[in-house]
Amino acid sequence: MTIDDEVLAGHLQELRRGTVVVACLATLRTPGYGYALLETLARAGFGVDANTLYPLLRRLEKQGLLTAQWNTDESRPRKFYATSPDGLELLGVLRADWQALDAAISDLT
Amino acid sequence: MSSTLTDRYVTATVRSLDDDQRVEVERELRATIEDMIDGRLEAGAASRPDAERDVLAELGDPVRLAAGYTGRPLFLIGPAVYPQWRRVITVLLSALVPLVTLLNLVVRLFIDDVATDGVGPAIVSALTVGFMVAVNVVFWVTVVFGLAERGRLGDVVLEWSPEQLPEDDGRGRIGLAETVTSVAFLVVVGLAIIWQQTSSPVTSAGESVPVLDPALWSGALPWLLVVLAAEAVVAGIAYRRGRWSTGLAVANVVCDLAFALPLLVLLVAGDLFNEAFVDLLVEGGWADAERDLSVSTGLGVVVVLVWSVVETLRTLRRSHDATARPARRTG
Fold it and tell me: What does pLDDT average to over chain A?
C-alpha cells in the first residue's frame, strides 16, 4: 500500500473510535471486570488503552448504561460491570444505526 | 510499610478527584494494576518490580488519567476560545506596548539629565516598562480566557459574528476615508506652520510671538510647505489609481524624509525655535524650555516619521498581496 503508515493508522483510528462503546456494551451482556474486558477486546481486535477504557466504563456507568458491583468473593476485590437495560436498548439502537450506515455506504460505493 | 510505586501512582491520580469518586477509583485502579502486573508476569516479565514499572508506564501520566475520570480539559485555552483570545492579545499589545514605551521614554528624557547620563538609561527604562506591560497583558488576558473556557461564562460574548470582520477586503483598494484623513493631516500641519507665524497663541506686549524662528521663512519653512503639498498630491494620485504602487510608496517615503530630516537638522543646530519664544517660556517659569522643546519635538518627528513609513509599507504590502491574487470574475 502506498499510503503512509501514520496516515493509515490515523484514519483507522477515526473509524474505530465510535465502536469501542458498542463493543463494551455487547461484551458486558455477560458481567465482567475491567481487565478481563481489556483482554477480550484486544483479542477481538478492539485494542484499547487501559487509561482510556476505565474512564470510559465509569462514564457509561454514570450515564446509566452499565451497572457496577463490587465482587469480594476472591482475594482481590474487583468491580464487575454489566450492561443495564438502558444499555441493552442503546446497544440495539447503535447496532441498527451501524447496519443502516453499512447499507448506505454500500449504496455509495 | 515502604511506599511502592503503585501507591505513589494511585495517590497522584486520585488526588484531583472528587471525594465521592476517590475511594471507588482507588480500589478499582489498584485491582487493575495488580491484574496487569499478573498479566505481564505470565507473559514473561523479569521481576515484579519490573512488571510494576512497565504497567505504570503503560497507564501513563496520572494527570491525564485523572482528567479522563473528571472530564476536565487538558488545556488552558481551548479551540473554542482561542481565536478570540488571540485577537484580544494582538489588539491590546499593538495598542498598549508602543504607547507605554513611548510615554515612558518621553518622561524619562525630561527627568534625566541627558547631558551627563546620555539617553541610554532612558531607553533601557522605556524598553523595560514596555516589556512588563506586554507580560502583564498576556498574563491577565490568558487568566480571564482560561476562566471563560472553564466557566462557560463568555459563551455569548465570545461568539464570532460577521460584524467582527476586519475592514480589509483583500483588494488593496484605497478608501476615500483613508485618503481624506492623510490629506487632512497634511493640511493641518501646513496650516499650523503658517498660523504660528501670523497669529501665534503666545503673545508679548500685545504682539504675537511666532513659535518657529522667523528667519526660517527664507528657506526651510517654504520647503516644508512644498513637501506637504507634494505628499498630498501623492495621496491624491494613489486614490485616483485605486491602489499604492511601489513608485508612489517610494515617493511618499521620500516626502516624509524630506519633511523630517530638515526639521531634525534644525533642531540639533538649535535653529528651529524662535529665540523670543523660548525666552518668553523661560521667563514664564519653564527653566529648561529649550531642552524640553527640542527633545519632545525631536521625538515627535521621529515617531511620526517611523509610523508613517511603517503604514506606507503595510499598505503597499496589502496592495501587492491583492494584485498577486487571481482576479475574481464578476458578472
Answer: 89
Question: Is the CB of residue B256 less than 8 Å from the CB of residue B71?
Answer: no
Q: Do residues B235 and B306 share a domain?
A: yes
Find the largest Cα–Cα distance for chain B: 108
Q: Residue B32: exposed, middle, or buried by beta-carbon count in 10 A (0-12, 13-18, 19+)?
A: buried
Statement: residue B140 has pLDDT above 90:
yes
CATH at A64:
1.10.10.10
Residues B190-234 pLDDT 10s: 887 887 777 766 666 667 777 788 887 778 888 888 888 998 888
- Residue B193: its pLDDT value, please? 81
Interface ipTM: 0.81
Q: Please list the alpha-helical segments (H only) found in chain B.
A: 5-14, 19-42, 48-59, 62-70, 82-111, 114-117, 120-151, 155-158, 176-198, 220-241, 246-269, 275-283, 289-324
Angle between helices B82-111 and B289-324 (to 10 degrees): 150
Backbone angles phi, psi at B214, to 5 degrees: -60, -25
Identity of the residue in B28, B39, B59 whose CB atom sits nearest the CB atom of A79: B28
Does B228 fall in a domain? yes
Contact B27 A39 (CB under 8 A): no
Confidence (pLDDT) at A68: 92
Q: Judge if B180 and B320 occupy the same domain.
A: yes
Are residue B217 and residue B89 in the same domain, yes or no? no
Partner-chain residue, chosen from B27, B58, B64, that has the shortest CB–CB distance to A50? B58
Q: Which of A37, A54, A56, A66 to probe by mutation at the B interface, max B CB count within 10 Å?
A: A54
Cα torsion through A92, A94, A96, A101, rounded to 10:
-170
Q: Which of B32, B34, B71 is opposite residue A54, by nearest beta carbon?
A: B32
pTM of the model: 0.64
What range defines the domain where residue B191 resides?
176-324
CB B282 within 8 A of CB B212: no
Q: B303 and B216, same structural domain?
A: yes
Note the pLDDT of residue B1.
45
Domain count, chain A: 1
